[in-house]
Design a protein that fits this description.
It is built from 2 helices and 10 strands, in the order E-E-H-E-E-E-E-E-E-E-H-E. The protein is an alpha+beta fold. The longest helix has 14 residues. It is globular.
Amino acid sequence: MKISFFDRQDESNPNHGVPVQDSTWLMVRIDELRKRDPSFCELEAQNGYKLLLGIGQDRGCAQYSALDGSPPYLMATDVSVDDDEDCMEFLTANTDTPVPTRYCLPVEQIKEIAREFVGTGERSEEFIWEEV
């Protein structure tokens, strides 16, 4: 499956728009993103789907949707959190985007979701996904 990586906060990132070599390569990119303010990157697959990843130091988020922007938009969900009031902010094009903490998971889980997407172009069935 051909997957491309896009840094939605910093298009000057030398990895912006390049093909993902493998999941190890992607894990290095995610760890690099963890060193800056929480922000978004995106993985686009040749099968017509994308995975938007919010990456913070310890927590992140994942949204799975069609490349053409059509619904549904599915967010990986932490069902143990029922508070939609608290949010985590992720940067995209220098604009803060609030994401309810219900959709924020430990970065290690976000990495698992990303690995599955790189391998299959599909969302991981190991997580609960909620339509937003």
